[in-house]
Amino acid sequence: MKFPASALAVAGLAVLASALLVTPASAAPSTASFTKVQDWGTGFEGKFVVTNGGTSPLAWNVQFDMPAGFSVSSAWDAQMTRSGQHYTFVAPGWAGSLAPGASHTFGFNGSPGNFPGISNCSLNGGSCGGSTPPPTSTTTNPPPPPPPGGRMPGAPYLYLGWGDPPSATSVMSATGIRSFTMAFMLSSGGCNPAWDGQRPLTGGVDAQTISAIQAAGGSVQISFGGWQGNKLGPNCSSPQAYAAAVQQVINAHRPAVVDFDIENTDEFESEVVQDRILNGLKIVKQNNPNVRIAVTFGTSTTGPTYWGTRLINRSRELAVPIDNYTIMPFDFGGGANMYQSTVNATEGLKNTLKAAFGWSDSAAYAHAGISGMNGLSDQQELTSPSTWQQITDYAKSRGLGRFAYWSVNRDRPCPGGGVTSNCSGIAQELWQFTRITAGF
């Protein structure tokens, strides 16, 4: 039944409609979500994702308590202060306030292992699970945020193309290593990926080895490129084509990390190919946000060379979300003191990353990595097991994000054997470098 509306009713409806038009919707709560990313027995990695659910920029402040006996050793993508067991993290200077609807990720490494979790977490004085952000009149236009960084498990290179490759699962059982960097993904012609450029992407020994590692509870990093061979970087016609080739590999093997070993004149010393790879990696990360990306390249004893510095700076200019920049401190004139030469080169890398991104020391270390060479290098540089232990301790103490060496195939004793594919050329225990690397 239809009734005629009175003038009063019409006026009332008009007032109500006007109120609805001018009353803003209530803001969704902002949150700070904590995740323990990994725990390796002697330490752990934690991650926070701060999300601005409001309608104004958020100048965030996350605080929490650590259990007695636990501490944070390094952090990245946030500024940290500590009072006893109470920790406070605020946005780094390069990030500014968090835009409405946006998220910011920061992380930290701590010790010891078997971390039970944090307590009394607050975001701007409210609950980390949901606090309404206070309004602010300050708006910013920060540069693109850097990637999460953070520690990856030690993952020495395992190459199934030569050097009497051992059983990966046997090495895992003997040493405690949980991850390997599988080498190398090359071109089988054009922009088509294949192991070593000739072994099939799936169905062969490489795929079988990866499946066995994963079935044993381990993980793999897959390395593209290297010093020699027919590489994808020069052969793929565009960043999109390069990303599509990488995607084939990710789909086939589900790696935790994809490593781009950018070397030699065809990739490293080519601006065109460097840019093609970097732009391709942006696409890879967009399509695979949970797969970490590392780039690996040569170094001088004082840090990245011109081409390494160019790679870092260009990745910043292009806003490429690279998780780790790994240097190879060998065949670089390291001389008799490979520990000090490696430290000097890594400190140079840290400083180059700080200059490029405006990061703190801890954030730069977290995005840095070392990939050494066990035993004798091609330049007869000697890295003994004791030196490698020193380097490992240094990498852990600085909170480096990635640690590897070339290669498991060579992790066998052969004193006086020279530089060869299936042993280190020095006296050592079987799998001794791998066992040390497992402690990273």
Give the integer mean of the pLDDT values. 89
Helical proportion? 25-40%
Domain count: the total is 2
| CATH domain class of the largest domain | Alpha Beta
Beta-strand fraction estimate: 25-35%
What count of helical segments does DSSP give?
12
Largest beta-sheet details:
9 strands, mixed
Q: What is the alpha-carbon Rg in Å?
A: 25 Å
**What is the general shape?**
globular
User: What's the CATH topology label of the largest domain?
Assistant: TIM Barrel
Helix/strand-derived class? alpha/beta
CATH homologous superfamily of the largest domain - what is it?
Glycosidases
Terminal CA distance reads 79 Å
Quick summary:
By secondary structure, this protein is α/β, with parallel strands linked by helices.
Topology:
Elements: H1 7-22, E1 31-39, E2 44-51, E3 61-65, E4 71-76, E5 79-83, E6 86-90, E7 103-111, E8 119-123, E9 126-127, E10 157-159, H2 168-175, E11 179-187, E12 193-195, H3 205-215, E13 219-226, H4 232-235, H5 239-253, E14 257-262, H6 264-268, H7 271-287, E15 292-298, H8 306-317, E16 324-328, H9 338-357, H10 361-366, E17 368-373, E18 375-376, E19 382-383, H11 385-398, E20 402-406, H12 432-437
Parallel strand pairs: 10-11, 11-13, 13-14, 14-15, 15-16, 16-17, 17-20
Antiparallel strand pairs: 1-2, 2-7, 3-6, 3-8, 4-7, 5-6, 8-9, 11-12, 18-19
